[in-house]
């Protein structure tokens, strides 16, 4: 029974990873400024999650005032992560944007002990290091003056925001439903980002609208909610490292929908990243 439950949890996490990985190709496909895209994404996702919580009668009550503070701060980090990530995608491509973001398992492994006052797990650091080596193979040579370098910088900043947000959510997911937490975070990001409508020009096309709906429903409402729920069954570091297969999914989507063809170095890096996912899955199963 325990093994069956573990396989179920691993499967749910991988479904979440697959859905979340569509953000790369969608982020590249939508032509609007990233802050506007993220605002619309959150508006649609908040509506979808609100309807889901109402239908499933999920309790939306926050038990403690300090929980409001944590949910609010994590929402701000989540919004900052999305905006910087989409800038990384616009400045480079799906592979560069996603792979620079995926330094976040290493950041998570290093930061998690500080938040939870636990001992640093050397295995997580080693696996995170393997992910970094994989990313090294997947990325081309950079020139500090070109957009690809800027894309990597935005991706690295995004990874720090994402790691902190996930760690903060780990503290709350034991007491609250993942859909409820995501619902409030979408509202917070919507409220904070609404001034961007007066700063950036907004002219969404029909294709933008369809991509936004997919982004809000599958990537955000379903994918990210399942990922948050996975924190009940895995540590944030474990979930982060196991989700490192996301860039591989993203590159495949980029190949299919944007004709972005991976190189031989990309394949080598992909093998290294997938290896860390398999190792971590086996390690948690033994646990």
TrEMBL record:
Keyword field contains Transmembrane: yes
Official protein name in the record: DMT family transporter
Transmembrane segments: 12-30, 36-55, 67-88, 94-115, 122-139, 151-168, 180-200, 212-231, 238-258, 264-282
Entry keyword set: Membrane, Transmembrane, Transmembrane helix
UniProt xrefs under InterPro entries: EamA_dom, EmrE-like
Lineage: Bacteria, Pseudomonadati, Bacteroidota, Flavobacteriia, Flavobacteriales
Keyword Nucleotide-binding found: no
Native organism: Lutibacter aestuarii
Span of domain EamA: 15-138, 150-279
